[in-house]
Design a protein that fits this description.
Blueprint (H helix, E strand, L loop, with lengths): L2 H21 L24 H16 L4 E3 L9 E4 L12 E12 L2 E6 L7 E6 L2 E7 L5 E7 H14 L10 H23 L6 H15 L1
Antiparallel strand pairs: 1-2, 2-3, 3-6, 4-5, 6-7
Bound molecules: zinc ion (ZN).
The site of zinc ion (ZN) has 5 residues, from α3.
Length: 218
């Protein structure tokens, strides 16, 4: 191998390190970040970078004391979410990754209190199916099908909604919507203020980035 090619190799290596390092900047984005209203597209490629993103999503989820996190919530426009219904980082065997999921059956219905890491300090009762059948791919590219009930089924339905650009306040009774509206308005106000101060990109810039990321992996 000549100097030229090893130089090229180290450049590629640097580039891939840069790309992984870039991923360390993932953060949970709040309402009304445009990613939260993005209808995500299916992932067509599983690689080390995607696995690094998933690792980070689990880390962010645990830091924020959540039980589930969808890719939209870290401004990634991919059909992907992670859950651990125990919320306990020690309970690794409860962790699940869903790539390109599809809920094929929903049965029963039950109200339960929900919150969302993208809507800090907001919670309300949401009606969800009690039993669902879902199929998805795991990180090794294997397809699987699961039946889930009660709380894990609720978590999955909440995260699945994110991939469709749906937030839980879209699904709540009108009397609760009125209660939540001031809190939602407050989040919008804070986000717009950060944009005006130049601490957050404009909606147009954020959407352009989502389209760029979409081209890379869907
Ligand atoms: Zn959520």
């Amino acid at each position: 191998m000549g100097f030229g090619s090893s130089w090229l190799l180290s450049l590629q290596c640097l580039f891939s390190q840069f790309r992984i390092a870039h991923m360390t900047k993932l953060k949970i984005v709040p309402h009304p970040h445009p990613a939260l209203r993005w209808k995500s597209r299916e992932i067509t490629r599983i690689d080390a970078e995607l696995k690094a993103m998933v690792d980070q999503m689990f880390e962010l989820m645990y830091e924020a004391r959540g039980v589930g996190l969808a890719a939209n919530q870290v401004a990634l426009p991919y059909r992907l979410f992670v859950i651990n219904p125990t919320g306990d980082p020690q309970e690794k065997e409860e962790e699940m990754v869903f790539l390109n999921p599809r809920i094929s059956r929903r049965r029963g219905s039950e109200d339960g209190e929900e919150g969302c890491l993208s809507l800090p300090e907001i919670c309300a009762p949401v009606t969800r199916a009690t039993l669902i059948t879902i199929d998805a791919f795991d990180l090794s590219g294997q397809q699987f099908e699961l039946e889930l009930e009660d709380f894990p089924a609720r978590v999955v339905q909440h995260e699945y909604d994110h991939l469709e650009g749906v937030l839980f306040p879209d699904r709540i009774a009108e009397e609760h919507t009125r209660e939540l509206q001031p809190l939602m308005d407050d989040l919008v106000h804070q986000f717009r203020a950060r944009q005006e101060a130049g601490e957050e990109q404009s909606d147009e810039e954020l959407k352009a980035e989502l389209r760029r990321l979409e081209k890379l992996r869907t």
